[in-house]
Design brief:
The protein is of the alpha+beta class. Helices cover 20% and strands 29% of the residues. α4 packs across α11 and α9 runs parallel beside α10. The radius of gyration is 34 Å and the shape is globular. The protein starts with a helix and ends with a strand. The relative contact order is 0.07.
Length: 726
């Protein structure tokens, strides 16, 4: 009986071994290959997969037949001859088993990638019911790559091709579908859309390591990526150092165990060499969602991304070079077309209005990358929704570029007006454009908007803009001699300049912004004063580093003290305030930032305020009563201990009380208590970029900018302290 059981067990093991061997021997292909797929026409077609090492694999695509042998890792790849459009064909791959993919089309294949505006489905786009009912396009095929970040390149994904129909189209990438639909109609060819996108993602995760290596400006990211690759010297050196430390600790631990003595914890594993696994980390989406597609033949890529990177300005251009260059390198099929969408205007909360235009500028500059094209959508965005639902026009405009630049259709206007040159003509500026099509127009019939000019004695002001041929003439009665201009330079800008074909102009700036001294330009009184301190507030910190400081050598008596604060956010109008007053101290070393070292501490009323400012709401004039200052390096609370008129006892404003520690938060404020307002404030300077800076009353829980931590918002932040000598 025992012998029979052993025999049965042996037989079962043999069957299991045979099945396992058979499974191991089965040829397989990555899931980018499947029923209903589209293969790129007119180029060699890479076909690859896995089989037993050394085994022969036979491949038949349509009428083309070839074979190869799996290498010692079980990998195999062939390039089938270029295929032409025709009836659906079959791809058959055979080793010990046969894999067959049917209903295979030959046509145009495009990779569709980016963040949520590329992932955005047809079902959530304009007029879905109508689009769904009309979506009978069996020659358009779509595959959605699952959202999987990985620390190392993956060989495969779990995805399947679908045929476009009213039942399937709702889940397709909308921008990609409307792009592909126009190509299909114009070219009369099958279209394959490979949708590898993920909402909210940055550009860095989509970029392969070789892309970062190509761009010197991204050396820090490249170093981070290399440190996580076990094959690199950097990784091995870091791990070796850690292991040596661990060995030393282990020896100490053994000694401590015998001696029954305390022991410190072991060294922590270096975080720098741990795999990158987050969907926000560099290369992870390339590894998990792009690498499994390579080298599947494609015509090109469309890209809709940037909202998650929009605050980093021109650095995005460097990252675009890395992405495009990296993809082209790994695909090894030349400089394939890369078409992208300039992100739409959007509120972005309380963010400076000029941060987004600087990002648009980086996207414009990305056109310098060969064989790229940019779609501008400032006329079809939604200021209240970061996901504009008009994806029909987005896709159609992408297709226009492809038809003109990739497929060589003649006579197509595929771009809106693009800046060409700037010329000064007296007090005016002439801006000339390329891509004017059949002429420049105002798309809504109203005067051209969002043009601004700047002169020697002004900041940027709205310009009168008049179309003249392929140019726009700019002028303003406020500008005697225009020096520079900008167009659409605001996060909410929806400019109306377009060509007659309905394609909008992209925001840009041109010319040389003049250097201006607002103090001498706007404050006549300042000519009677002598500069003592000049402080670039970028240099705030525990130690104040003045650009200019003559206080140690200053011995002349003075009767008045003046402060001039100017603030400017990127691309915005300069805000300034000038306030002078009768001297509140004879010690000139105590009239600037009241640091603990200066021993300056004042909470006192000041007389005869003269105030000049361009900030709305600031009470200006000469000889104003109601002045008081709060200068101290200590902490402070809202209690109105000095009974300053109109001040609150519960709100930080112009009547606060200093408190311990004496070297604490820090306050430098000038007020007009009769007007119930802060004239200017500089607080918490020891925190540098986290300092509080402001002109006028702040809003929220304070009126004197306490706790605002807003210094980093300003590109220009400068304080000058002057005295009027007697």
């Amino acid at each position: 009986m025992k012998s029979k059981r052993v025999s049965l067990l042996a037989a079962a093991c043999f069957v299991l071994f045979s099945l396992t061997t058979q499974i191991q021997a089965e040829v397989r292909l990555p899931h980018i290959f499947g029923d209903h797929m589209v293969l790129q026409r007119g180029v060699p077609v890479p076909v690859w997969g896995w089989a037993d090492p050394g085994n022969e694999v036979s491949i038949k695509l349509g009428t083309s037949i070839t074979s190869t042998v799996a290498n010692n890792k079980g990998e195999w790849m062939v390039k089938m001859p270029p295929q032409q459009i025709g009836d659906p064909i079959t791809l058959m791959v055979r080793e010990k088993n046969t894999v067959t993919f049917s209903d295979v089309l030959i046509g145009e294949v495009w990779l569709c990638s980016g963040q949520s505006n590329m992932e955005w489905p047809v079902s959530r786009s304009n007029n879905f019911e109508e689009e769904q009912a009309a979506a009978n396009y069996p020659l358009i095929r779509h595959i959605k790559i699952p959202r999987v970040p990985k620390g190392f390149p993956q060989d495969d994904v779990d995805a399947a091709w679908t045929v476009c129909s009213p039942e399937t189209v709702g889940s397709y990438t909308a921008a990609g579908y409307f792009f592909g639909r126009k190509l299909h109609k114009e070219l009369n060819v099958p279209i394959g859309l490979v949708n590898s996108s993920w909402g909210g993602t940055r550009i860095e995760p989509w970029t392969p390591p070789v892309g970062f290596a190509q761009v010197p400006a991204l050396a820090d990211i490249e170093k981070q990526v290399q440190l996580t690759n076990p094959a690199t010297a950097a990784y091995q050196a870091t791990l070796g150092t850690y292991l040596k430390g661990l060995e030393d600790w282990t020896a100490e631990a053994k000694t401590a165990l015998k001696a029954e003595t305390p022991l410190t914890p072991p060294p922590a594993y270096p975080t720098a060499i741990q795999p990158l696994t987050s969907h926000s980390s560099p290369t992870t989406l390339y590894n998990g969602m792009i690498h499994p597609l390579v080298p599947f033949a494609i015509r090109g890529a469309i890209w809709y991304q940037g909202e998650s990177n929009h605050g980093e300005g021109m650095l995005y251009f460097e990252k675009m070079k890395a992405l495009v260059g990296g993809w082209r390198e790994v695909w090894n099929q030349g400089e394939f077309p890369f078409l992208y969408v300039q992100i739409a205007p959007f509120q972005y909360g309380s963010e400076s209005p000029s941060i987004l235009p600087v990002f648009w500028e980086a996207q414009n500059k990305s056109l310098e990358i060969p064989h790229t094209g940019q779609v501008v959508i400032h006329d079809i965005g939604d200021l209240k929704d970061i996901h504009p639902t008009n994806k029909q026009d987005v896709g159609a405009r992408l297709a226009l570029i492809a038809l003109a630049k990739t497929y060589g259709q003649k006579g197509l206007v595929h771009s809106g007006p693009v800046f060409k040159s700037l010329k000064k003509e007296g007090a005016k500026l002439r801006v000339t454009f390329d891509h004017v099509g059949s002429g420049l127009v105002s798309r809504d019939g109203k005067p051209l908007n969002w043009f601004e000019i700047i002169g020697e004695e002004t900041d940027f002001v709205p310009a009168d803009a008049v179309i003249e041929g392929d140019s726009v003439i700019l002028s303003s009665p406020k500008v005697k001699q225009a020096a520079a201009m900008r167009f659409g330079w605001n996060k909410l800008a929806e400019p109306n300049l377009s060509n007659k074909e309905g394609l909008p102009a992209t925001p840009f700036r041109a010319g040389e912004v003049p250097q201006r001294d607002w103090l001498s330009l706007k404050v006549e009184e300042s000519k009677e004063y002598t500069l003592v301190y000049d402080l670039d507030l970028k240099n705030l910190g525990r130690k104040i580093n003045y650009t200019f400081n003559s206080s140690r050598d200053f011995t002349t008596p003075y009767g008045r003290i003046a402060y001039f604060l100017e603030l400017q956010k990127i691309g915005e109008e300069t805000q300034y305030v000038y306030v002078s007053m009768d001297a509140f101290t004879t010690d000139i070393t105590k009239i600037a930032v009241p640091t603990f070292e200066s021993k300056a501490s004042f909470q006192t009323k000041v007389s005869n305020l003269n105030v000049i400012s361009n900030v709305p709401g600031i009470v200006t004039g000469k000889g104003l009563p109601g002045g008081n200052i709060e200068f101290w390096p200590s902490n402070y609370g809202p209690l109105n201990a000095k009974n300053i008129p109109n001040a609150s006892a519960t709100l930080w404003d112009f009547g606060d009380e200093p408190s311990e520690p004496s070297d604490g938060y820090g306050c430098m404020q000038v007020h007009n208590y009769e007007a119930k307002q802060t004239i200017f404030a500089i607080n918490q300077w020891k925190s540098g970029p986290g300092a509080d800076i402001g002109i006028g009353n702040s809003t929220g829980k304070t009126r004197d900018w306490t706790f605002m931590s807003n210094a980093s918002q300003y590109e220009v932040k400068r304080l000058r302290v002057l005295v009027q000598t007697q």
